[in-house]
Amino acid sequence: MILVAGGAGYIGSHTCVELIKHGYEILVLDNFSNSSAKVFDRLKKITDQDIPYVDVDICDEAGLESVFSTYDIQAVIHFAGLKAVGESMLNPLVYFENNIAGTSTLLKVMKRHTVKHMIFSSSATVYGEINPSPYQESMQTGMPTNTYGYTKLVVEQMLQKLDQAEEGWSIALLRYFNPIGAHPSGLIGEHPKGIPNNLLPYVTQVAVGLREKLSIFGGDYDTADGTAVRDYLHVVDLAVAHVLALKNRLDHTGCDIWNVGTGNGYSVLDIKNTFEQVNQLQVPFEIVARREGDLASFYADSSKIQNELGWEVQYQLDDMLAHSWNWQKNNPNGYESA
Ligand code: NAD
Ligand code: WQD
């Protein structure tokens, strides 16, 4: 059985669908700090399965011990983390405890039960400011511009040191670029609590009338249209990358790194304009000052994951933006509107 820690969240729930599609037996572990157990009703509609889950925190060693003693766990896909950049700058200790100490506790219990396969949700933020795009896995990591990103870098380094020190670990560090979109069914998607930090949820909330207008952070970057460029990828393609990484790791030992990005860069204005065109609606906007810590442009070199894991992008930008809107318009209040 595969333990999906943080499996009730945005990327985790989409990954549950793909794992089931590929025949894996799964157990979700989540403390629901940023998700709702209502997601399991939606997952049942998509997969026709009742996915078992436990309400446990990765910082709770006794809780983890009971899970690993009860279930026959073969590998862990580890999504369980806090991810709000602004909050991480205000409350670093909360991020150290949840993301770093929580992962350490999870690893300790895994080791005790001889479970040594882990797929970890890392981020392109670990490349920092020093590297030019396209980012390659062989580049030296830099210093992330925020505390959230710093926790990802620390956990990557913890996992690398663990692998160097002890035999038998099998770890994948997946460095995500900018996941957006939702399941094509419109049944699961992303619904951030409070004011969205990320671009796409903000755009869809303006489009659905929950927010007045989009603020575009910075129009004077050294990019084609002056707005910042990112590598957006469909969350279902990202979910598939986890299945491929899991298959690979079940047959290998060691710690390996894969970028998960398409290799294409789109600007904020590209996103707004394409969203309007694909969905036939208007998104009022204004260009405001740059957001602190933002880089002008970054995108992946995705050749390693393509060559080594056979990952292929199934969805293009139009699909990502159509699916984001399909989810938002049918679920203006996320799972609460069910
Ligand atoms: P999410 O918040 O939707 O999902 C994370 C899940 O983990 C939530 O269900 C949350 O309740 C759970 N969780 C958090 N702390 C926990 C704890 N201590 N114990 C148990 N469960 C806990 O976020 P997401 O967008 O699905 O991201 C999943 C992972 O991918 C995170 O680790 C995130 O940092 C990483 N990541 C996300 C992005 C992105 O843009 N969304 C980019 C790079 C990396
Ligand atoms: C994308 C672009 C903004 C909101 C962050 C984390 C990273 C990863 C993904 C996850 C930027 C602009 C945004 C808005 C805007 N994390 N923007 N108006 O900053 O590339 O990456 O999320 O867990 O680690 O740092 O993503 O979606 O916040 O921003 O103009 O209201 O959209 O300035 O250029 P980012 P984002």
From TrEMBL:
Keywords: Carbohydrate metabolism, Galactose metabolism, Isomerase, NAD. It catalyses: UDP-alpha-D-glucose = UDP-alpha-D-galactose. GO terms for cellular component: cytosol. Residues 2-261 form the NAD-dependent epimerase/dehydratase domain. GO terms for molecular function: UDP-glucose 4-epimerase activity. Gene3D superfamilies: NAD(P)-binding Rossmann-like Domain, UDP-galactose 4-epimerase, domain 1. Pathway: Carbohydrate metabolism; galactose metabolism. It is an enzyme of class 5 (isomerase). Its cofactor is NAD(+). GO terms for biological process: galactose metabolic process. It holds the Pfam family Epimerase. Its EC number is 5.1.3.2. NCBIfam families: galE (TIGR01179), PRK10675.1 (NF007956). Homodimer. Belongs to the NAD(P)-dependent epimerase/dehydratase family. This is UDP-glucose 4-epimerase. It comes from Acinetobacter marinus.
